[in-house]
Amino acid sequence: MTMNNHGRPTSPDHVPSDRNLDTVSGSRGLLQAEGLIFEVGTPDTTGVDLPKPKNRTGRLGGVARKKGTGLPGLSEPQAVRHYMRLSQKNYAIDLGLFPLGSCTMKHNPRLNEKLARLPGFADIHPLQPQATVQGALELIDELAAWLKTLTGMPAVAMSPKAGAHGEFCGMMAIRQALIARGEGETRKRVLVPASAHGTNPATAVQCGFVVDEIKANEIGRVNMEQLREKLQTSDDIAGIMLTNPNTCGLFESDIREIADLIHEAGGYFYCDGANFNAIVGRVRPGDLGVDAMHINLHKTFSTPHGGGGPGSGPTVLSEALAPYAPVPFVVKDEDGVFRLVEDMEGDASESFGRMVAFHGQMGMFVRALTYILSHGADGLKQASEDAVLNANYIQSRLKSVMTPAFDGYCMHEALFSDAFTAEGIETIDIAKSLIDEGYHPMTMYFPLVVHGAMLIEPTESESKAELDRFCDSLESIARRAAQGDETLKGAPYLAPMRRLDETKAARKPVLKWVEPNADSVAAE
């Protein structure tokens, strides 16, 4: 019996029953079983009949293929059904609440998609003459104006293609500013709080800096005593990389003092803007003393998130770093014509250089500006307030059965520890049990400063009814975890695949399909 054909429990308390729930087809209700495409099709068939060309000889000589490719042949219905069945195994924001913390899985309005497909945006080429793409350049300029206004920063680099790319942009600008001051070789130390996103220290190292960690205090914020000590005993501080609101879902209450201390020490303040969705319209990072901050358009302004596709991570820069922004960037001349500054001369003479071949990602720019214009300044502010309200509602609903990591209100995400669980029940068991309830698990074991962390981030678009539905499910699982319910350790029972050995899958992945040996299969 394959792993996909094990019995599934159906009793209300999720205790596996003795009843054999296997089906002949391998499907479960309306959820169709589906194998690999190599198992669906066969290499000796094809879904299309093409006549052999007449009177044609090959021109490949001795390098012509002598045997088949081994690729499966499928008819059109087979191919369509294969990918449709696979899509039904995906969890998506269009399907239900996405509780991942620190990732802001925001709803992508269909209006955004419609406008991104307009001629003049969807079909332009990066090598077109600039005179033929004036509308696109104007849109980029208008989006940049909004981002500068919302952050209180005088400049923005639009070309970074993702959040980590935006971090790289900000840190390269800091590096170039230090070089211009003649301190490029003497200031190499970057302070990074323990609650920072993992890309922060990696980016600092990639830019040639040395990372120095700052521990969190007992209330989940930067340990100010340790920060002061490091600044007093080091004269090589280049800056700090800090996330605010931080990865514990908390606003750094000493943020202004942190900025002042860093600046007094001769360093620059890089803020990770991944959680900007929590403060848009309420707080301007520029007013907090920030020198550089990337903005994840997918997290804050509703552009598609992940999937390996084109992203966008514009980076706003303070007056101190603006001269070092990368090329290209858009400017508007006195005659109203928009143009790209692409060479490191004139306005860009101090630029640290070029990050990408072309200028950002047009589709993401269109979607983000559509979202901004459809909300307006007041709507953006309300979206942030509703995101924080939803997170605090979840924390309030669950704090009687789960253990909040820190006292008091949270910002856009609620963080719990595993302190409420009985011995033997782990965070991973709660995550897998959520799958049986129809939800993608929340972020688990992150941030590392909280033992058995569970980080939940609802967005502003979730209704109270949907939040209650999620909380009811998680509350039930939490009560069973507190009672030491051993059936949690076997979850998920209702998913297409049962619990896998994820450690082995990561360390010894099977990356190639091998046709089973007919003799060995028959022997089994």
TrEMBL record:
Assigned EC number: 1.4.4.2
Disordered: annotated span: 1-25, 47-74
SUPFAM superfamilies linked to this entry: PLP-dependent transferases (SSF53383)
InterPro entries: Aminotrans_V_dom, GDC-P_C, GDC_P, PyrdxlP-dep_Trfase, PyrdxlP-dep_Trfase_major, PyrdxlP-dep_Trfase_small
Example of a GO MF term: glycine dehydrogenase (decarboxylating) activity
Keyword Oxidoreductase part of the UniProt annotation: yes
Keywords of the record: Oxidoreductase, Pyridoxal phosphate
Reactions catalysed, as given in the entry: N(6)-[(R)-lipoyl]-L-lysyl-[glycine-cleavage complex H protein] + glycine + H(+) = N(6)-[(R)-S(8)-aminomethyldihydrolipoyl]-L-lysyl-[glycine-cleavage complex H protein] + CO2
Residues of the Glycine dehydrogenase C-terminal domain: 383-482
Enzyme class: oxidoreductase
GO terms (BP aspect): glycine decarboxylation via glycine cleavage system
GO (cellular component) term, any one: cytosol
Superkingdom of the organism of origin: Bacteria
Function, as annotated: The glycine cleavage system catalyzes the degradation of glycine. The P protein binds the alpha-amino group of glycine through its pyridoxal phosphate cofactor; CO(2) is released and the remaining methylamine moiety is then transferred to the lipoamide cofactor of the H protein.
Name listed for the protein in its UniProt record: glycine dehydrogenase (aminomethyl-transferring)
